[in-house]
Amino acid sequence: MEEKEKIVTPDEEKEIEEIESGIVPGLRDVDISKEVRSSFLDYSMSVIVSRAIPDVRDGLKPVHRRIIYGMNESGMQPDKPYKKCARIVGDVMGKYHPHGDAAIYSTLVRLAQPFSMRYTLVDGHGNFGSVDGDEAAAMRYTEARMTKLAMEMVRDINDDTVPFVDNYDGTEKEPSVLPSRFPNLLVNGSAGIAVGMATNIPPHNLNETIDATIAVARNPLLTPLEIMEKYLPGPDFPTGGTILGRGGIKDAYETGTGSIALRSKALIEEGENGKKRIIIYEIPYQVNKARMIESIANLVKEKIIDGITDVRDESNKEGIRVVIEVRRDTIPEVILNQLYKNTQLQVSYGIIMLCLVEGAPKVLPINEILLGYIDHQVVVIEKRTKFRLAKDEARDHVVLGLLTAIDNIDEIVEIIKKAATPEEASQKLMIRFDLSEIQTQAILAMTLRRLTGLEKQKLEAERAQLEINIAKYRDILSSREKIVDVIVEELLEIKGRFGDERKTEISNELATIEDEKLIPEEDIVIALTVNNYVKRMTTDTFRTQNRGGVGVKGINTNENDIVSILVQTKTHTDVLFFSNLGKVYRMRGYQVPESGRVSKGTPIQNLIFNLEKEERIMAIISLDDYHEEHFLFFVTVNGIVKRTALSEFASIRQNGKIAISLKEGDTLLDVKRTDGNALIGLASSNGKMVKFNESDVRSMGRTAAGVKGMSTDGAEVVSATTSIEGELVLAITQKGYGKMSPAESYRLTKRGAKGVLTINTTDKNGKLVALRAVNGDEDLMIITANGTIIRIPLEQVKVAGRNTQGVRVIKLDGRQKVVSIAIVPHEENGVAEEKSNGSEEEENVAIPEENDADI
Prior knowledge:
- By secondary structure, the chain is α+β, with helices and mostly antiparallel strands.
- It has four domains: 120 residues, Topoisomerase II, domain 5 (Alpha-Beta Complex), CATH 3.90.199; 80 residues, 2-Layer Sandwich (Gyrase A, domain 2); 123 residues, Topoisomerase, domain 3 (Orthogonal Bundle); 306 residues, Neuraminidase.
- Helices cover 29% and strands 24% of the residues.
- It has a four-stranded mixed β-sheet with strand order 14-9-8-17. Strands 10-11-13-12 form a four-stranded antiparallel β-sheet, covered by helices on one side. It has a four-stranded antiparallel β-sheet with strand order 21-18-19-24, with no helix packed on it.
- The longest helix is centred in the middle third of the chain and has 42 residues.
- The chain is elongated, with a radius of gyration of 45 Å.
- The termini are far apart.
């Protein structure tokens, strides 16, 4: 008989075709974009819920929760011996967390690091890493156990307070959340990167967080701002530091996101030989100290920061100490500010308070985080109370039956003796004494020792306590307010046991701070030499001496260098530097490096980088403001003068601008500040002086060349003065002679005249060096060619007629010469070291005024 042909269905035919074409049967065509979208969403939610984002209730991610629960289950409490970390990791991985051992161990290590956790939850024994980024020792070497505070995370976990779920393979049970008897999410913070979102919650002080929790529990309507102002001022990092400003904290607390500036704590110490050093003793949270020091060294090497001579790490078990040595001529506060700007000595810490709320990620303000924790605690206390109530009610029921049995022991014994089986005895007891099955089972299980009078007293005392407990539990469960009272009481207990002082300061200072704000405002003297060495000194560097004193060394100079200018100013004042080439440069007083009295100073080319080779600073003007009706009056060596509005110099920068256009062969001599109504005096080296109204010179632009101010007859203009500087005219010659004459004794001349005699210049007193307008109550600083400075009160300089030779002001040896003078306010803080021996006759001889005619 012929075989019947098999009928193939269309589906079977398609499957055969797929097999023949190499396609695995059972596969189906799908849209890849839809499949990837769906699968990636599943993956994303798994990462968010099961790995990266903490729960608002206990502040833990699953791996943290499993480590703490696993250690507790394995008996690694604080009063037990340390156990190997390898064992902890193995237990957690095998029972609860089926992921890599390295990830579990790194989490365990972090829980034990006091520089990572504000309050550690694991007590580590061994090498658990360092703030320098050193890794922990291998898990086979380190040991650990729970801290006492970690026990508060699992406290009451066996009282049916939290739900338990199956582990990954259904062989174990694990809690889906821990009781967490303190607000761990805020206390220790959390950081994690999920898919499409991230969290970065800073740690807080336990005392402050508990105070805020209690306040919100009492008044759930508290706003984030009220919480911040009254209870929780801001984060508190384990490494300390200073938070700059409160705006970022306010934003984070109100919206759940914000950014704060976190700065290291530092102080300025004076080291050996008066040198200053910067000491860093606290660094920002999560900053690697070793890398931070390396970055400082690189900035010095690349000359981004100048003035640091050494950086060393002197940190030990007592704490952090990074020493930064600075040069003597630098301002350590400015160096520190530069380090804040360019290194991780100051960092920006972004806050994203993202956490899981009922399994969904949500960014919460501070009040909602606290409310989420409080709601969790209400559930924990309610479930714990119900559990304890049921337990005590059950025990009370049993104790009542036992007491009934003791009171009727003879009859009960008789019933039991006559019963054929335990079941029969139980039934008869239940009927006779109206007992429950549980009570009769307890009676039947009683030993004879429980029949004594003492045992009866114990049972009666136990029942009395049980009745008290039952009443208390029922009272707690009667309202949410009673539950909150329990939460508050237990939080205060934890605060008393584990609370500590705040580590991180919160400053009202802005996150960005200018160098000037770091510098104390004080009076200073700026000294400049002919060879352009400059330095800053305090005004009390020089002792006041009587006329004729030898003086103290004001500045060390090279063999061919002399001091040329001394200007009194302030650290926060603008200082304009005018060069012989007619250019002007600006800087603040504090930007001139401070030096000791005997220091040579700093080459001004180090401060003004584009000075030309032949360029020298001729005048320094101190300006507190740029008054619109005030002027700068320029004088050149060839007698050219110019007047320019002060406001035209308000925008001068350190790289300089043209201040006056000079003719060939001429150079700038001096610059004066005037008020528009001053009398101008120009003096030449031959002892002549012209005096004219400032208004005789019209105001010109900054780049103008000027007009003729004095005819010099081959001599050079050596000095310029103004009436607004004083009512007396002081003249000093090369050989230390000088005098003061009333300004009114100098009659007005025409602008451009040769002038009248102001001091008789002879071989004895030398050429005129300087002429100044003074009031007579100031101090005179005289600078000699070898750099010696003497300071004397002007009241010791004789007032005489303008056509006299003057008196000896400073005693000079054979080849010494006066090269410059400066007028500073009088100070009553000095004693003369040496007075004139009187061997020189004070000459005050009148000279005929044969040259007084105007030309």
